[in-house]
């Protein structure tokens, strides 16, 4: 079993590495740089889902029971309000103090959005990327935290 876990970890980390480095180079020139990025995520997303399918199913069973409680929605609302307030504070701080908070690949994302349809870019940025990152970091690199607050903070950090 330990060998299987290590193999899963290695496959996940290698896949994540391919997102950032290797696979783009293989696709370069066939479609165009803007589509290459999207295609990399289309290839890696089902691979990561397949690697961690057992863990995803287990987590879903646990999570679906939590969804039935009223306290979950109260906590969710509190976290969403807190997130909104902190995001507003960060945006105010970046404007007031001149902080540069945009990611370094912001121009690449803008170029991609002019070529790739917006709905596909949204799927890539809001579904593919955070799910891949969460699964790779949670199961392959740092492990699943035992504390619920740590889980929420790590998930928020990944998104």
Can you offer a commentary on this structure?
The chain is mainly alpha-helical. The chain has one domain. It contains eight helices and no strands. Helix 1 (2-20) packs antiparallel against helix 3, helix 1 packs antiparallel against helix 7 (118-141) and helix 3 packs across helix 7. The protein is globular and about 50 Å long. The two termini are 31 Å apart.
The tally of structural domains comes to 1
Helicity, in percent?
over 70%
**How many distinct beta strands?**
0
Distance between the termini: 31 Å
Would you tell me the structural class of the helices and strands?
mainly alpha
Quickly describe the structure:
82% of the residues lie in helices and 0% in strands. With 159 residues, the protein is mostly helical. α1 runs antiparallel to α3 (33-51), α1 runs antiparallel to α7 (118-141) and α3 crosses α7 (118-141).
Annotation keywords:
single chain, 159 residues, mainly alpha, 0% strand, globular
Please give the structural blueprint.
Elements: H1 2-20, H2 22-27, H3 33-51, H4 53-66, H5 70-97, H6 106-115, H7 118-141, H8 148-158
């Amino acid at each position: 079993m330990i060998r299987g876990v290590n193999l899963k970890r290695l496959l996940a980390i290698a896949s994540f590495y391919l997102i950032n480095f290797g696979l783009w180079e293989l696709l370069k020139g066939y479609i165009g740089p803007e589509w290459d990025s999207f295609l990399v995520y289309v290839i890696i997303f089902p691979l990561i889902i397949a690697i961690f399918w057992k863990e995803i199913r287990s987590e879903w069973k646990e999570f679906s029971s939590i969804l039935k409680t009223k306290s979950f929605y109260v906590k969710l609302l509190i976290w969403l309000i807190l997130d909104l307030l902190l995001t507003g504070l960060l945006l105010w701080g970046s404007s007031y103090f001149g902080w540069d908070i945009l990611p370094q690949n912001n121009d690449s994302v803008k170029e991609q959005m002019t070529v790739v349809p917006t709905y596909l870019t949204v799927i890539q940025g809001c579904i593919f990327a955070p799910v891949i990152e969460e699964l790779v970091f949670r199961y392959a690199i740092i492990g699943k935290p035992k504390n619920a607050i740590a889980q929420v903070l790590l998930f928020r950090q990944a998104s």
